[in-house]
Amino acid sequence: MGNRLAVILFNLGGPDAPGAVQPFLFNLFSDPAILNLPRILRWPLAKFISARRAPIAATIYAKIGGRSPIVPETKRQAAAVEARLNERGWDEARCFVTMRYWTPRAAEMVQEVMAYGPDQIVLLPLYPQFSATTSGSSLKEWRAAAEKIGLTAPTATVCCHPLERSFIVAHAELIRERLASVPNPRLLFSAHGLPQRVVDGGDPYQWQVEQTAQKVVDELGISDLDWSICYQSRVGPLKWIGPSTEDEIKRAGGDGKALVLTPIAFVSEHSETLVELDIEYKELAESCGVPSYIRVAALGTAPGYMDALAEVALAAAARGHGTAPGKGTSARLCSANWTGCPNAAPKSTTGEHHVG
Length: 356
Hints:
alpha/beta, Rossmann fold, five-stranded parallel β-sheet, four-stranded parallel β-sheet, 45% helix
């Protein structure tokens, strides 16, 4: 084990000012993981979509101060994880924050990591459940940037942590408190949706979301708990995985059930929690006759979750290289049916290889 560790925390990113909304959306829709088209078609389509959606998105961000809170929140998470790492045996550990679609981007952070001169690197996406559209895209951008400047320190990747014990317990603690405030509620686990074709192509995201939710329910230990999983944020005409969060809210209204809703795939607050969940879905719940609508906070810097991230980072560092879920185990979490699992990927060219 080397003496200097760099842990890279990846997240989506968000506009930091009203003028950043359209270029942020362009970066999003020009990603081939989002629009799987040849570049000659993807770029003009991304220009069109981002220009068309920017006014709507700007209105959404205006409701939360005109900017996304995701970068400041991720930096707080990085500071908390870094403190834990430096308490647990490393001579020096530093966490770096990288966003996929807005600043700070991978190219900038690779330069900072290179200047830091780590003996070892751990790549740690803040997406508990793996998808090629989120973690996969972020890791691909990082590896390309690292290869371009010759960053070759031994690198280990935590592809996902959907079943990490401290992560599950942290969720359960926040949920249990809110469940106790409502008589006989229904618990909704809301995750960001995906087009059905992505999952049909072997992406393990939905399966991993289901595994996380079941583990949290098991941890809650409430007999006869009424709960379900749903998916939010559908965009475009394609068929998306379901059921949708909107439909589950309407069903609860028809059943006369109070709702406690928890974001199971988001670990920081941003527009899709602060606006979509807190404002739009709350209004929908009221209009549908839901007796009570309570939203559980995202994990943020919850101590248990910070412990989980530090634990998986340390386990990956001890492993020294390769890609694995959770605490650095080389076992493949996903069954062979999920061909999009990153542990099935070929050998990399950046001083890193995959296991599985």
